[in-house]
Amino acid sequence: GVYRGDQYEEDPATQFSLNIVGVLDDEELILFRIEFRPGEDKFVMNSYDPDAGWGIEVRPSFYKEFKKDTVFELKIEVQEGEYKVFINGSELAEKFPVRIGLQEAVSVKLEDG
Question: 18, 74 in Cβ contact below 8 A?
Answer without folding.
Answer: yes
